[in-house]
Specification:
Blueprint: H1 8-16, E1 21-22, H2 25-34, E2 38-44, H3 55-66, E3 70-76, H4 97-111, E4 125-128, H5 130-133, H6 138-145, H7 151-154, H8 158-165, H9 172-175, H10 177-192, E5 194-200, H11 204-218, E6 223-227, E7 240-241, E8 244-245, H12 255-263, H13 270-277, H14 282-288, H15 296-311, H16 314-328, E9 339-342, H17 349-355, H18 362-370, E10 374-376, E11 379-380, E12 397-402, E13 406-412
Parallel strand pairs: 2-3, 2-5, 3-4, 5-6, 9-13
Antiparallel strand pairs: 1-6, 7-8, 10-11, 10-12, 12-13
């Protein structure tokens, strides 16, 4: 990447499709021309891993740092105890302090692959809003900041308005979430001279509330920038599949399944995803955009390799790309595939498909087998009652396939 300065961040965000809305864009760019800016994104600890729906925000922080600005990763150890109502028709389950701490420690490891942490000027820092929210005195908070919040504006926040319009319950606990997120911005402004909050488009109302609080409580200027809420071209939510979420942590989802998710990207999404989730130059991405028909698969493999390099490791990307090529050329069994250890070789094909989490019910398995979609060692099996035996195992391993794209191993212990 050629030499950049902090103001290039906005241009890169524009060019690669990251920007949905931004407050006072011209002044924000002027700030960045003068000096690098401190900016943050918050991540609540609702699960032990983030999924690919959060990857767009992580990439924003990465580009933010690569252009010389200073990123803050804000862990929501405090706000997770309240629950963000954005995009939800009902309250999120309340987690224990122990579970939140466990989730937080697991999520932290993701950012080490994308950001450089340390003591230098634009090194990333990670802070936890539990540090100031856990011991917040409610009366003092209301006395000092309550007058800065307009109930008229709060009830018109998208997250609040949708619940009220649909007559779905919104607890007072959740109603406070926007106030606490705004308070986060104020604390980061005071402690780190943070001027920019970024997030998904569903956070726009919360971000603007924070900007208002920073301005009213400290007379400082603050800015907000949101990314589009991504769906695939077929309309499904980014990061969700029929078999569950696409987790960023490898202990939640194998490298193989992660790579395959990107390899199976819909044709119309490939170029958009290359811009958002890789660091390939735009000129190279535009060349890939000219591929037609089956040639698009080349771009999908590049996408899968580049995202896997960033999220998992270059070694994982190289190994899986190689093994996938062998697999599609009907080569021998490859150990990089997802695997399950079994103690008995005599397992029904229906049960084998379920053990490998290819599907959940016997009915789904029967339909797959009847439709010639199930294979054992690359041979189609259309017998619903087929029982695997010694003859199916090669060196104690058997390959089970669901269609052309999902493959796994049963390993006999």
């Amino acid at each position: 990447m050629s030499k950049v300065n902090s103001s290039d961040f906005i241009n890169i965000m524009n060019e690669r499709g990251f920007i949905h809305q931004v407050t006072d864009k011209a002044n924000l760019q002027r700030e960045m021309i003068t000096t690098p800016v401190v900016g943050y994104i918050g991540f609540d600890c609702t699960a032990s891993s983030l999924h690919v729906g959060s990857l767009i925000q992580i990439m924003m922080l990465r580009w933010f740092q690569k252009t010389g600005n200073k990123p803050i990763v804000l862990m929501g150890g405090g706000t997770t105890k309240v629950g963000d109502p954005s995009g939800k028709d009902s309250a999120r389950p309340l987690l224990s302090s122990e579970k939140i701490k466990f989730n937080k420690e697991n999520i932290k490891t993701i950012f080490e692959k994308f950001l450089k942490f340390g003591e230098y000027d634009n090194n990333a820092i990670m802070v936890d809003n539990a540090d100031w929210l856990e011991n917040l005195n409610y009366i003092s908070f209301l006395r000092n900041y309550g007058s800065y919040f307009s109930v008229n504006k709060l009830v018109n926040l998208e997250s609040v308005k949708l619940r009220l319009e649909r007559e779905h319950n919104l607890s007072f606990l959740e109603f406070n979430y926007s106030l606490l997120q705004a308070f986060d911005f104020l604390q980061l402004s005071k402690n780190y001279n943070c001027k920019l909050q970024m997030g998904g488009s569903d956070q726009w109302g919360n971000i603007v509330t924070g900007i208002d609080l920073v301005r009213k409580a400290s007379s400082k200027q603050a800015f907000g920038l949101t990314s589009p809420l991504l769906t695939t071209s077929s309309g499904s939510k980014m990061g969700k599949t029929a078999n569950g979420a696409i987790w960023l942590n490898s202990d939640q989802l194998s490298d193989w399944d992660f790579w395959q998710y990107w390899r199976n990207t819909e044709d119309l999404d490939v170029i958009k995803f290359l811009k958002l989730f890789t660091e390939l130059p735009i000129s190279e991405i535009n060349k890939l955009g000219k591929l037609k028909g089956a040639e698009i698969n080349e771009a999908k493999i590049i996408l899968a390799n580049e995202v896997t390099k960033l999220c998992r490791s270059p070694e994982a990307a190289d190994k899986i790309s190689s093994s996938s090529a062998k697999l599609f050329s009907k080569s021998s069994i490859d150990d990089t595939m997802p695997s399950v250890v079994v103690t008995n070789c005599e397992i029904g094909l229906i049960e084998a498909l379920k053990i490998l989490n290819f599907l959940n019910t016997n009915g789904e398995a029967r339909r797959l087998i009847r439709g010639n979609g199930a294979k054992i060692n690359d041979i189609v099996i259309n017998d619903e009652n087929y029982i695997l035996s010694d003859k199916d195992y090669e060196n104690g391993k058997v390959k089970i396939s669901y269609g052309k794209k999902k493959h796994g191993l049963l390993i006999l212990s």
